[in-house]
Amino acid sequence: MTAHRHHDSGDGSADDLAEGICPDAYGRANADVAVSDAVADPAPEEGAAAGAGGTGGEDGPGLISTGRLEAFSDGVIAIAITLLSLEIKLPDEGGSLLRALASLWPGYVGFVLSFLLVGQVWLNHHAIFVRVRSVDQWMLICNLFLLLDVAFLPFATSVLTRSLESGHDERTGAVFYGLVMVVGGLFFNALWRTVIRDRRRLRPEVTEAEVRSMTRRFAMGPWLYALAALLGLVSAWLSVVTYVALIVFYMAGHRPRRVSPAAG
Questions:
Q1: CB-neighbour burial class of residue 94 (10 A; exposed 0-12, middle 13-18, buried 19+)
Q2: What DSSP character marks residue 233?
Q3: Can you tell me the distance from the alpha carbon of 187 to that of 196, in angstroms, rounded to the nearest whole number?
Q4: pLDDT in tens, 196-228
Q5: 251 with 218: CB under 8 angstroms?
Q6: Which residues share a beta bridge with 135?
Q7: For the chain, how many helices (H) and strands (E)?
């Protein structure tokens, strides 16, 4: 009688829960139903969460989430930016430590320059993909070529810094470094052009004015880097100063976009 009275109340009390696990036939049946309902109910929520904002799964034929692309890109960029510091090494010969540290100034210049450059690439890469809700095969390929240039940058940095240290072929080192930046700018533009050729890849809140503004800024990059590289034929330091100015220009132009939780 007591157990039956608690079942009729249906108020979700501790006695009701205890009834659901009573060691009789009816108790076992109730427990099985409760467990089945608990397992079945979350499925629609999980499906909705997975599809929210196009970031949890496929968003149509040939369109996949940006998660793996961004994770892989961040990993490559992090490794490249870490390798830059390995190019700075103390001279083997003895003597004053202070003098040895001071003699490494070209390495410091190259490290700061390339660190800022990779940081600029990361910021603008983020500026693209915070506006993207899905990617396709061509975007993956263009992004891979961009990362190829980023991964090559530590070597280009060592060419520049060693030419400055030796005092020979500084202009060649500066031009070579600039050419690497030009190629990276071309790959970056290829990635962006692939993104905007299909409006479905962009989040609905991205405006046409944003797209036009970013397209203009990115398109200027390879030309400006080429100009900086040509200045290296006149003076390596003039070229280096121009590289720094361009990096600051593109960093200052970065405008983060707020993304609502509902949009992914």
A1: exposed
A2: T
A3: 15
A4: 988 888 998 998 998 999 999 999 999 999 999
A5: no
A6: 64
A7: 11, 0
